[in-house]
Amino acid sequence: MNRRRFLVFSTSVIASGLLAACRGEATPTPTTAPAATPTQPPAASPAAPSPTTQAVASPTAPVSSQPFKIGVVVAQTGNLAASGRRHIQGMQLALEELGNTVAGRQLELVPADSAGNPEQAATHVRRLVESEKVDVITGFTITPELTAVRDYLHQQQQLTIVSIAGWPAITRDPNVRSPYIFRSSFCQGQYEFIQAKWAYEKGGYRSVAMMAPDYQTGRTVAQIFGEYFQKSGGQIATEVYPPLDTTDFGPYLQRVLQEAPNADAVWAWFIGADAIRFMTQYQEFGLKDQYPLLGGAEVGDDPYLPEVGDAGLGIVSAINYATRYERPQNQEFVQKFQKKFNALPGHLEYWGYITIMILAHALEAVNGDTSDKQAFLDAIKNVSFEGPMNRVRFHPETQGVITTVIVRRVDRLPDGSLGNVVIDEYPDIHDLSF
């Protein structure tokens, strides 16, 4: 026990800030104003002119000559700071490629530190819209930041590209969607339903035990995995839900051994320090030798592999970005990122990169003139270009990006290190695919 507690202390500082997009569903869904039909955004009301229109200073300063201001609301301090930092690095790489200018408009990042706090995020969003007069708002490290401001953004008719948070309702629920809000990252459940299908159809598993943290997101993604695994013909042997920030998984792993002795595999969804502790203790308690491990969220994710060592070997997970995905555009992206930051990019960097590129292509389509809000919204809706993972474009109904979901496995690489290798791919996955 002392050794495990030492591990907890030594790893939690590193892990707590990484890959936090899926955490924090505990805040209630905000009261939502009915959104206009997503495929037909209403024009701005004369009584409430759009922030972009308000930003036009005078006839001598046409909008096409003003900087295009990108408000980025992400955690830059606190436990989630690493997530915000990595996301902004992806944006910085894209800006460097573009020379910070598109169609005559200088691109200007205006970062704001949410610290993972919904109230702080809401304060910054209001400042960015009302004082900074930003052209677009991006970011949102965790879902509660987004739920706290969704109504405000919709009422202000503020162009927004959610570039991290995976709140399903923002694209899946017709009563929560907004014609002004797009998403360039992912939707919770988008990976899990693919992983469930793969586990039964290609992994050959017929009975799976499920483990996830006992809060809204954990239970939601577990429900989606279980539903699609059963639809495929499989059985859920047992479900075990430890609390968030569990330090000793022993009692919960023992339950799996007792309740699902004949399961073919374990599917486990954990994040941050919980993910590191879980992988390490899964091996320590001997389950790694008995049950193959299907990783959800950050179980098996590359940034944690140096910390967990051989405990990560063989874990199969699903996500919409993979460093070793063999596509020329991705290889170029990885090389450029590695040269600039001396590190490999992950999904947070990828989402930041394509968000800037989406805006760049839309600006080109309107020749840098965003004074016609409807025309610029249409330009974003119609964006289509070859990105690192696939052709980047939006679903016309959800306004969520259409993506390729990768199934990957942790292997020992030729240089002796551990890393995820792609073993399968599922193209053209969108928010309504499940």
Mean pLDDT over the residues: 87
Number of strands: 15
**Sequence stretches where pLDDT stays below 50 over 5 or more residues:** 1-22, 24-61
The helix count comes to: 15
Proportion of strand residues: 15-25%
Could you give a short account of the major beta sheet?
7 strands, mixed
Helix residue percentage: 25-40%
Trace the largest sheet across and list its strands. Answer: 8-7-9-10-11-14-15
* Straight-line distance between termini: 41 Å
Shape: globular
What integer value in Å does the Rg equal?
22 Å
The H/E string reads HHEHEEHEHHEHEHEHEHEHEHEHHHEEEE
How would you explain this protein's 3D organization?
The protein is α/β, with parallel strands linked by helices and 434 residues long. The protein has 15 helices and 15 strands. It has helices at 2-15, 51-54, 81-98, 118-130, 143-147, 150-155, 169-172, 190-201, 216-232, 250-259, 272-284, 305-308, 328-341, 347-365, 373-381, and strands spanning 68-74, 101-102, 105-113, 136-139, 160-162, 181-183, 207-211, 235-240, 265-270, 293-297, 316-319, 385-386, 391-392, 403-412, 418-429. The strands form three sheets. Strands 8-7-9-10-11-14-15 form a seven-stranded mixed sheet, with helices on both faces. Strands 2-3-1-4-5-6 form a six-stranded mixed sheet, sandwiched between helices. β10, α12 (305-308) and β11 form a beta-alpha-beta unit. Mean pLDDT is 87; it is low at 1-22 and 24-61.
